[in-house]
Amino acid sequence: MNMVQQPNDIRDIIEADRAHVWHHLLQHKPLETNDPRIFVEGRGMRLWDATGREFLDALSGGVWTVNVGFGRVSIANAVRDQLVKLNYFANSAGSIAGAEFARKLISKMPGLTRVYYSNSGSEANEKVFKMVRQIAHRHHGGRKYKILYRERDYHGTTIGTLAAAGQPQRREQYGPMPPGFVEVPHCLEYRSQYGAIDNYGERAAEAIEEVILREGPDTIGLLCLEPVTAGGGVIVPPAGYWQKVGEICRKYDILLHIDEVVCGVGRTGMWFGYQNFGIEPDFVTMAKGVASGYAAISCTATTEKIFDLFKDDPEDPMSHFRDISTFGGCVAGPAAALENMRIIEDEGLLDNTLQMGARLIANLEDLSERHAVIGNVRGAGLFCGAELVADRQTKEPVPEKLVQAVIANCAAQGVLIGATNRSLHGLNNTLCLAPALIATEQDIDQITDAIGTALTTVFG
C-alpha cells in the first residue's frame, strides 16, 4: 500500500512548475495541456509522483546517478553536519572533507594521485581539455593541442565538451564548434564498419591510429574515451581494443583521458569502468555516482606527472592551472561522497552489481529469444542495453518513436527505463537500463517483465 503523503497544495505546485520551471531535455509545448511529471519522494529504488503513483526506477534517478538508492539518511546527515560546520570556501584553500575524500578516492585508483573538484561531469571534462591545451602551450610549443574523441561517445553539455561529442544530434543548432577536436570511429562490433572479422577490437583501435597519422601525431595531445559508451548505446569495447589503444597512446605520446562520468564509482561492478580492461589513464573524470546525487560534485583525477607540469615556475603568473569552479568549493560534495563510498563498501554493492548485472543480461537475452525485435544485448554490471531492430538480418533500426512507445508502456506499468534519444541520426534504438547498485533479483525481474510486456504490446 502506498503510504507516501502528498502535499495538500500539490495542484498549486503543479501550476507553479508549469508556469516557471524550464525542464531539462523536454519539449514544453505538450505541458500547456498536460501536467508535468513531479516526483515527491523516493525510497530505495522506488519513486512516488504527485498523483501518488509508485514507480520502480531502472535509471537511478533518470540519468544514471543515484547509485546507492533514494532516502539514504546517513548521507543526508553527513551533508547536514558538514554544512553546519563549514559549508563553503573557494577551493584555493582546503577542507577536511575535501582532503579525506581525495585520499579515499585515490586509494581506489592506483597510479593516480591528484583530484581537482568541480560540480558537473561536463565541467570535469572541460578541465581536462583546458589542462591539455595549457600543457601544449607550455611544453610542446603549442603543437599538441588536438583532442580526439570517439564516434557515439558523449562528454557533456558545454560548447567545449559538445565539440568532443560523437553524437551529431546533440551538436545540432549549437555550432560552430571550436576547432581542434577530431573524431575517431566507434567500436560497436554489432555494427562493424569492417564486415565480419575475428579481430574487430584490434581493428577498431587501429582505426584510431589511422586518424592520428592523418592528423599528424605531433598535433595530438589527448584521446578522450568512455570506458563503456553510455548514451551512445551502451557499448562495451571488444577484446583486444583497450590493449591496442594503450599501445597507440604510448607510441605517439598522447595522453589518455577516460570519462567515467557514468561508469564511475561502481556502475560496472568495479570502482571504475576502466579497471575492467587494465587501462593506465592519465586523466579520469567522474560525477554522477560520486555522491549518488545527494550533493553536486565532480572530480578530475590525474597523475603526479601531469600535476608537476603546472608547478614549473612559481614566479611565472601564467604557469599554474588558472581555473576555478565556484561550487567545487562547496564541502557538501566531498562529505556526501565519503558516505556514499562507505555505503558501497560496507553493503558489498560492487559484488551485488556483478551478480544483479549478470541476472539482468540473462533476462534480456531470454527476452531476445522470444522477441525478434531485440537484435543485440550488451552491458557491464548494472549498465545494460538492448538494441531494437526491425530485421535481425539487415539490422535495420526500429524507429525512435517505437522505442519511445516501449518506454511509455513500461512507465504505464510503473517501471522507468530509458533509451538513446535525439543523439544519433537513425540509431536512437537502444533501450538503456541502469538500476541502482542495491537492486534485488525481484527488482531485476520486474524490470525485464515490464519490458517483455511492452515489446509484446508495441510490436506484437
TrEMBL record:
It is an enzyme of class 2 (transferase). Pfam families: Aminotran_3 (PF00202). SUPFAM superfamilies: PLP-dependent transferases (SSF53383). It comes from the Bacteria. The lineage of its organism: Bacteria, Pseudomonadati, Pseudomonadota, Alphaproteobacteria, Hyphomicrobiales. Its EC number is 2.6.1.77. CDD domains: OAT_like. Transmembrane segments: none annotated. This is Taurine-pyruvate aminotransferase. InterPro entries: Aminotrans_3, Aminotrans_3_PPA_site, PyrdxlP-dep_Trfase, PyrdxlP-dep_Trfase_major, PyrdxlP-dep_Trfase_small. Belongs to the class-III pyridoxal-phosphate-dependent aminotransferase family. The keyword Transferase applies. It comes from Peteryoungia aggregata LMG 23059. Its cofactor is pyridoxal 5'-phosphate. GO terms for molecular function: taurine-pyruvate aminotransferase activity. Gene3D superfamilies: Aspartate Aminotransferase, domain 1, Type I PLP-dependent aspartate aminotransferase-like (Major domain). Keywords: Aminotransferase, Pyridoxal phosphate, Transferase.
